[in-house]
Design goal:
alpha/beta, Rossmann fold, five-stranded parallel sheet, 7 strands, 17% strand
């Protein structure tokens, strides 16, 4: 099995695409310390431009960006460079999106908050060895809360429409939305 250094020796280029500037900065520094040649982008448009300019060997792309869907960047990367290894990060995990991400070329799909070690394990895992499960996965309550928040945002923060789509009472939804996010 190749070590991290062996894999990075051939082409250490890494593109990070995320619209959360603080998270992007932390991940950029962590990945650079681990030997990657890191470029960053804060939007789908910037990510697509970076892929068009010089397709990286590795990419870590946030699913939901302010100007669109991060899967567009993964798809463009896979078309330009089929051997590239991309990981999709998201705070809104669901199975349908994970399946779509893998179909268009992502090798893994991680829920935020993912640390640099989780990302590297996913990026460098081969078919024979699966990456270790995350040390601190989201709790079931947190996953439920994230899903509710996602639907709420997709419904333009309309409580009645969100409650209808989630098949729950509007007041129940209001109580959930008023609470802090579970850990």
């Amino acid at each position: 099995m190749s070590t991290v250094d062996d894999l990075l020796e051939t082409d250490p280029s890494l593109l990070l695409v995320d619209d959360d500037a603080a998270f992007l900065g932390r991940l950029e520094r962590a990945m650079a310390r681990r030997g990657f040649d890191v470029r960053t982008a804060g939007s789908v448009a910037a990510g697509l431009a970076a892929v068009a300019e010089k397709p990286p060997a590795y990419a870590v792309v946030d699913l939901r960006l302010e100007d669109g869907n991060g899967l567009d960047v993964v798809s463009a990367l896979h078309q330009k460079r089929p051997d590239a290894r991309a990981v999709v990060l998201t705070g809104y995990g669901n199975i349908a999106t994970a399946v779509t991400a893998v179909k268009i070329g992502a090798i893994d799909y991680l829920s935020k908050p993912a640390d640099a070690d989780d990302v590297i394990n996913a990026l460098l895992a081969t078919g024979e060895d699966k990456p270790e499960p995350p040390e601190n996965p989201m709790s079931a309550d947190r996953v439920r809360w994230e899903h509710i928040q996602r639907v709420y945002e997709l419904c333009d923060r309309n409580v009645s429409e969100t409650a209808r789509r989630l098949n729950m009472h509007r007041r129940t939804l209001q109580r959930i939305l008023a609470k802090r996010a579970p850990r």
